[in-house]
Amino acid sequence: MKVEKIKIDSEFIKLQDLLKLSGVCYTGGMAKVVIQNGEVTVNGEVCTMRGKKLRPGDTAQFEDTKIVVE
Known about the structure:
- The chain is an alpha+beta fold.
- The chain has a single domain (2-69), classed as Roll (Structural Genomics Hypothetical 15.5 Kd Protein In mrcA-pckA Intergenic Region, Chain A), CATH 3.10.290.
- It is 24% helix and 33% strand.
- It has helices spanning 15-22, 28-36, and strands spanning 2-6, 13-14, 40-42, 45-46, 53-54, 59-62, 65-69.
- The chain has a five-stranded mixed beta sheet, covered by helices on one side. It has a two-stranded antiparallel sheet with strand order 2-5.
- The longest helix is centred in the middle third of the chain and has 9 residues, at 28-36.
C-alpha cells in the first residue's frame, strides 16, 4: 500500500479536495463518483459524503493508497 502525506494549512480539507490534491483522482467529477460509490474510507469507515471535513490526523483510503492529513 502506498501512503501519501498531505499537509494542510487550514483547519480542515474536504474529502473530494483531498482526493484531487493527493492525485488519486484526476478530477472533481472522478472524486465525486468514487466517494458516492462507497469506494473511499475515512478513518477506516466507508464515507459517501464528498464534503466530509478531514483534519490533521485523519486518514482516507482509496484503492491501494492511504492518505494521511497532516
